[in-house]
Amino acid sequence: MALSFPISTVIFSIFFWLSLLLGCFGDGASKDPSKSAPGCDNPYKLVKVDNWVNGVAGETYTGVTARFGAILPLEVDKSVKLSAVVANPLTCCSTPSTKLSSSIALVARGDCSFEAKANLAQSNGAKALLVINDDEGTIEMGCDDDTPATNITIPIVMVPKSTAESFRKALQEGHKVEIGLWAPDRPVVSFSVAFLWLMAVSTVATASLWPEIAKTKDSEPRYDDFSPKSASDGATSKENTEEIINIDVKSAIIFVISASTFLVLLFFFMSSWFVWLLIVLFCIGGVEGMHTLIVTLISRGCTCQKKVTLPYFGETTIVSLIVLIFCLAFAIAWAITRKASFSWIGQDVLGICLMISILQVARLPNIKVATVLLCCAFVYDIFWVFLSPIIFHQSVMIAVAKGNNSGGESIPMLLRFPRLTDPWGGYDMIGFGDILFPGLLVGFSLRFDKENKKSWASGYFIWLMVGYAFGLFFTYLGLYLMHGHGQPALLYLVPCTLGVCVVLGLIRGELKDLWNHGSSSTPTASLGGA
């Protein structure tokens, strides 16, 4: 019991464009450090702030180092662990009356420079300085160009207001508070990207091969149009072609214009209600995709066709109804637990099912359209990730994709995998667009091979799959070589897929066939239609 054609096609069309619009982004490039005063050239680093109250370990908090002062150790067993003392005056802008010897001094931000606080704390015996921010979050603690900081030899760390308040409250109650500071390095590329790479490559391969996977001996697969249908196929052929949406050159050009406009609007007017709308659409599309895939697989090995009649939906099989209930429950459970540590599993399952279904519905007719679409996407990706900070002072694509100003909600059009080897946690991610764009071309290559009865070696599919796999590998290699700076995946994926297809076509003398393939046929639907 899948959604009827108009509803499912509209959902897949909307999500196709939203996924391409928001799903092609890399990690943000960090700012190059500006020229600074002597002794003020330390890199900003995240700090783990461990604490013990009366010897009992508490929650580990996060802070950030200053551009000056001592470097914190990388390992926890070498961390700076000392008793905490609240400075008096709290801002530490004049000689403190409290004894700071061999302790970590807690001081408030304000009234004087960070270097002045550090100098006074150090001169009174403090071994480290913990600066309390005046709100949640932290700021960059640099130093003035005219203020040397070479004489400061203690570590300086800033923590959010709420973190320091818990320490101050425990001290006011007479408890002994000890604080440990250490700053482990964050790996530029985590081993987890191997699993993300595998998921992306497997999704493209599965989506391309799905018509063959879904094919049964007694029935034609839902999306199989590898072979031309004879006139005797009649209604079956018409039903299959009605569910195919062909992308044309016009839609590829319109995409760049409309997507860029929409992206700028989202950048300025992003809100939690819009992210919630995307979450709802994601769940609907994921349910439709998962239901279609599961029912198709069950139908291959099960001949049970017991049916029931339901209002609005009409007649449907019991198996289809049970699967639909399961898929709905799965999507609802993910939506409820979407902020839990394990929610990436449900998001990836729904996302993969959605993308496989989209790639059965949306298709490229030839590499002429593929060239226009992928080149437009290539320019779109580069501009909005790399060049937009020149105009907007930050990457528009990254700001939108991360859900800035969205009330803590994040956009779901991503495959995620936890950074297992990163002491700071977090996720490695890849946008749907980095899978759907190349997936459209890879799917076309397999259909072209089938129609021209090509073997694996003489065809294009296997070589484009290899190209996609290497393109994604080069993306993560570039991320490593550029020390984590932003790397739009399409920067590598387009040359490794479209480039491979064009070069092979030239060598084999088939470029004209690839370029004009299907141009004489009339598509039943188009993503660029008015």
TrEMBL record:
PANTHER family: SIGNAL PEPTIDE PEPTIDASE, SIGNAL PEPTIDE PEPTIDASE-LIKE 3. GO terms for biological process: membrane protein proteolysis. It holds the Pfam family PA. It is found in: Endosome membrane. Residues 218-227 have a biased composition (Basic and acidic residues). Residues 218-237 are annotated as: Disordered. It is a multi-pass membrane protein. The chain crosses the membrane at residues 252-270, 276-298, 310-336, 342-362, 369-392, 429-448, 460-483, 489-507. Keywords: Endosome, Glycoprotein, Hydrolase, Membrane, Protease, Signal, Transmembrane, Transmembrane helix. SUPFAM superfamilies: PA domain (SSF52025). This is PA domain-containing protein. Intramembrane-cleaving aspartic protease (I-CLiP) that cleaves type II membrane signal peptides in the hydrophobic plane of the membrane. GO terms for cellular component: cytoplasmic side of endoplasmic reticulum membrane; endosome membrane; Golgi-associated vesicle membrane; lumenal side of endoplasmic reticulum membrane; lysosomal membrane.
